[in-house]
Amino acid sequence: MRDDPIALVLDDLLKLDDILACMVARHNMISVMPSGDGFKPEVNKIWDVIKRAMDDVFIVIGQYSGAGLGEMEFRLQDYEVLFYVFPDTENALVAIVPALANKGLLEVEMENARREILKIMNSSEREKLVATV
Amino acid sequence: MIDQKFEAAVGMSRKWDAREAGREVAETAIQKLNRPPDFFLLFSTIHYEKHGGFQEFLNGVWDVLPKGTPLVGGTVAGFINPEGCYTRGATGLAVTYSNIKVAVGIGRNTGRWPKLAGRKCAKKIQDELKKTNYRNLLCIDFISGVTMPTIPGMPRIVVLKNRILAQMSLALLKISTIVFQKGVAREENVLKELLNALGNNTYVFGGSTVDNNVFARSYQFFNDKVVKNSIVTLAIATDKRPQIRSAHGFELTDQKFKKIKLTAWNRMIKKIDGEPAVKKYLDTLNWSEDLIDERTFHRRLIFNPLGAKDEEGFIHPFVPGAFLGNDYVTGCPIVNDEVGILKASGLNLISAVTQVVDQINQNEDFFLFTSCASRLETLGANEFQTQKIISEKIKKPFLLVYTTGENYYLPGKTIKNLEITFNSLSLS
């Protein structure tokens, strides 16, 4: 995990005070998590229910990502979960933030992280292609 | 015709460590210049406060920046430059030009003694620029912005529904502003004195420093010092003419009021047409009070703020910064008794960018933009569109900073203390 460039992007995101957890995930699967100590402790108390709700959202993402679904979010108790979908995939960058967080400012850094991760994904795809050829 | 002697460069860092970020922001800017910079504008988000501190951040800048380079700046909610749009990191704009004379000024205690701060800031500039023959004087200012009371465990207070607590907070606001310099920023008093001293042929362009929109604190940078509650100004005497443009995208609706009762340095509306301000405002919009809470406050209300025309016919939006009981609190001074409801959409806010950028001529240089942190909060990742619009039009280095209040002055006009606007400064 420590050498995974996507995990490093998530590490950066998690350093922001209001990002309580972040990951690259898809339905029923967390693909990449931050490389450090994991999520911030306050997420633990609500993680089970959030995880279930997330999985339901990923069904929608899977159905509409190809149609251009870019972002989704839901509010559960005192938290909001933001989904930044990777275009034409069933994967999304997910962040859990407090409901009272300054979401506009966080959205900018979520978008920067999505762009960075996409760049990493595209370059590793290219590398795979070169290796195959 | 572009003057070959004029060079501008933008630097940036996304490093977390304050000192390393300081070094990188200076390095990435000045390495693009062919000569040492004549001045350096430096901005950072609030994050370095917890990652080494702002003095270390500045120390990092001075590890690289040539000694004696005039430097001003401060903390901002975010920034846009040719590389992207960011709400974390540091950025800077370095300029070198042969026909320029630069001075920096500082005035302290802007909350407590705003007029004195303005005068002191001007004095230092006057002393340094008295022997210049350049016809244009431009002051780029950054003033400590508005701060709000906070309660531990709560991000900020924007909606205080408890009337008794609200009454107390009103009483405490003036004391807090003057004694602790927490509260209203009083930029207009600072700038009036600055202009009185420097003369009304001076151009002024700037904004108010802020944190990550929590409105708890902000910092200003002045050469190698980190300061608070101050105005820092970079004065440029030059043969180039400053060009300042502004837009916001709001228009007045038919819903107008005849009279308002103001307090707290004209930033708090207590009554609208004899009725409690917040109630009258929400009733006019046909909105229930229950719709407004901490979470939705800015995103719901920003599109329908109160506003008024100034004596030049310019519409000033007064976006609610807080509802304290029934009092409507806004970030900049209300310029006219006859306020009305404004309207705009997200598209209108973005169109303000196009409106400003379309007026810019290709032969202009030095592009500094200011925009409101509340726009950033409202538009969020849609601000990448702003970056795209500017990048497509301006093929030179540029920098946009998100402040908590924007200001400018054009000779012969009135000082504009604004919010929720988009503004550009360039030299032609």
Features:
heterodimer, A: alpha+beta, Beta-Lactamase, 3 helices, 5 strands, 44% helix, B: 428 residues, six-stranded mixed beta sheet, 10 helices
Map the helices and strands:
The complex is a heterodimer of chains A (133) and B (428).
Chain A: H1 5-14, E1 21-26, E2 29-32, H2 47-64, E3 71-76, E4 79-85, E5 92-98, H3 103-132
Antiparallel strand pairs in A: 1-2, 1-5, 3-4, 4-5
Helix pairs in contact in A: 1-3
Chain B: E1 7-13, H1 18-30, E2 39-44, H2 54-64, E3 71-75, E4 78-81, E5 84-86, E6 90-96, E7 100-108, H3 114-129, E8 136-144, E9 159-160, H4 163-180, H5 187-198, E10 203-209, E11 220-222, E12 225-227, E13 230-238, E14 242-247, E15 251-256, E16 260-263, E17 268-272, E18 275-276, H6 277-285, H7 297-301, E19 306-309, E20 315-318, E21 320-324, E22 327-330, E23 340-343, H8 346-357, E24 365-372, H9 373-379, H10 383-393, E25 398-403, E26 406-409, E27 416-418, E28 422-427
Parallel strand pairs in B: 2-3, 8-10, 9-21, 24-25
Antiparallel strand pairs in B: 1-6, 2-6, 3-11, 4-5, 4-25, 7-13, 8-13, 10-26, 11-12, 14-28, 15-23, 16-17, 17-18, 17-22, 19-20, 19-23, 21-22, 24-28, 26-27
Description:
- The complex is a heterodimer of chains A (133) and B (428).
- Chain A has three helices and five strands.
- Chain A has 133 residues and is α+β, with helices and mostly antiparallel strands.
- Chain A has a single domain (5-132), classed as Beta-Lactamase, CATH 3.30.450.30.
- Chain A has a five-stranded antiparallel β-sheet.
- Chain A is globular.
- The relative contact order of chain A is 0.17.
- Chain B folds into two domains: 7-147 and 183-247 and 348-427, no CATH class; 251-343, no CATH class.
- Helix content of chain B is 27%, strand content 34%.
- The A-B interface holds A 12, 15-16, 71, 98-112 and B 14, 16, 47, 77-78, 84-88, 154-155, 212-214, 294-295, 298-299, 376-381, 383-384.
